């Protein structure tokens, strides 16, 4: 009888052991890491436990704890205690698989009265290296940055159509500071309350699949010596509407108007009284003292030496430059833009 009990005990131990191995293997295969909730003076953070690479786990744990330490320093400061301010944080794990980890911190700051500020901070990691990932690491080309911003704008427009609550449908995410987290298809951008929609909408999420930002790159530098004979590669689509052709800053983050030949169109760069056509507007290529019209600015259409002039975009594709630099391939001289726009109607 004792021997039977002994066999059963051994069998159960083996089962538990094999089960533990299976769970560990499944976790490793999914790229999921073990996390533990921790607090520093009332402010939460998460900590990696039993991670195979101690150097990586120590680095990440230190960075996550630093956020809690900083929050505690603010909330426990003499000024906050005297004024009765409220500064609270919470933490959540937004993604934890495929060797990617996304941790989100949420802060609520109230100085009195009924109003308060809320915002999020994201910490995204490649668990194979321990490197913290920023949007700039994912959007590592101008083409990706542009396509990313186009997708965000389109999604916000769609949300506005459905809810009517979005007040900034042209919001451009700051690729250096924007909160985001991974998902199985790409990334999710998380806008703070009151950033793109009314506060009662809370945080606004925009899902950006990787395949939405994999687009055509900029044309390479060439030897086009005559700006009146450019070879701009506009996609061969019949009946191109110049209103669908847009000008952006070289990084794709600042909208500079459309090529609409309707001089009453508010977005047209040919509307001399409009935002993008006035010689006095900061976002106009015709402002000779502005960023995009000066002879000396590297972002200007009129700097004949720059390699980062405004770009021409058609349905998410970068098809050329607006520039006086005669050595850039697919360039259109600013003075030829109207003629160029008019030729599109004849395609």
Question: How would you sum up this structure, described in words?
Answer:
By secondary structure, the protein is α+β, with helices and mostly antiparallel strands. The chain folds into 3 domains: 35-133, 2-Layer Sandwich (Heat Shock Protein 90), CATH 3.30.565.40; 138-212, Heat-shock cognate protein, ATPase (Actin, Chain A, domain 4, Alpha-Beta Complex); 217-347, no CATH class. Helix content is 26%, strand content 24%. The chain has helices at 2-30, 54-75, 78-83, 135-138, 142-163, 337-344, and strands at residues 35-40, 43-48, 86-97, 100-110, 117-126, 131-133, 180-182, 186-191, 204-209, 245-248, 255-258, 311-314, 317-322, 331-332. The radius of gyration is 27 Å and the shape is elongated. Residues 1-29 and 216-238 have low confidence and may be disordered.
């Amino acid at each position: 009888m004792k021997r039977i009990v002994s066999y059963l005990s051994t069998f159960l131990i083996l089962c538990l052991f094999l089960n533990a191995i299976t769970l560990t293997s499944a976790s490793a295969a999914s790229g999921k890491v073990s996390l533990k909730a921790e607090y520093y003076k009332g402010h939460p953070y998460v900590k990696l436990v039993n991670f195979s690479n101690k150097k990586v786990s120590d680095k990440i744990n230190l960075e996550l704890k630093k956020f809690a330490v900083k929050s505690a320093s603010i909330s426990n400061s003499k000024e906050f205690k005297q004024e009765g301010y409220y500064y609270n944080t919470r933490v959540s794990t937004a993604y934890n698989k495929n060797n990617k980890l996304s941790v989100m911190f949420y802060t609520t700051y109230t100085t009195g009265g009924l109003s308060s500020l809320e915002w999020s901070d994201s910490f995204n990691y490649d668990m194979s290296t321990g490197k913290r990932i920023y949007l700039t690491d994912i959007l590592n080309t101008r083409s990706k940055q542009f396509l990313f911003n186009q997708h965000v704008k389109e999604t916000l427009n769609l949300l506005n159509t459905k809810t009517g609550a979005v007040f900034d449908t042209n919001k451009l995410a700051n690729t250096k500071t924007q909160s985001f987290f991974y998902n199985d298809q790409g990334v999710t951008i998380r806008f703070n309350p009151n950033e793109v929609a009314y506060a009662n909408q809370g945080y606004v999420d925009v899902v950006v699949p990787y395949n939405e930002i994999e687009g055509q790159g900029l044309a390479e530098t060439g030897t086009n010596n005559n700006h009146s004979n450019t070879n701009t590669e506009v996609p061969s689509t019949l009946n191109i509407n110049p209103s669908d052709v847009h000008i952006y800053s070289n990084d794709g983050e600042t909208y500079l108007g459309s090529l609409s030949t309707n001089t009453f169109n508010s977005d047209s760069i040919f509307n001399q009284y409009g935002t993008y056509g006035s010689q006095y507007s900061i976002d106009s290529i015709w402002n000779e003292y502005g960023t995009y019209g000066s002879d000396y600015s590297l972002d200007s259409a009129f700097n004949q030496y720059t390699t980062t002039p405004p770009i021409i975009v058609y349905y998410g594709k970068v098809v050329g430059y607006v520039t006086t630099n005669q050595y850039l391939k697919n360039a259109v001289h600013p003075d030829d833009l109207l003629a160029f726009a008019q030729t599109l109607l004849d395609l």
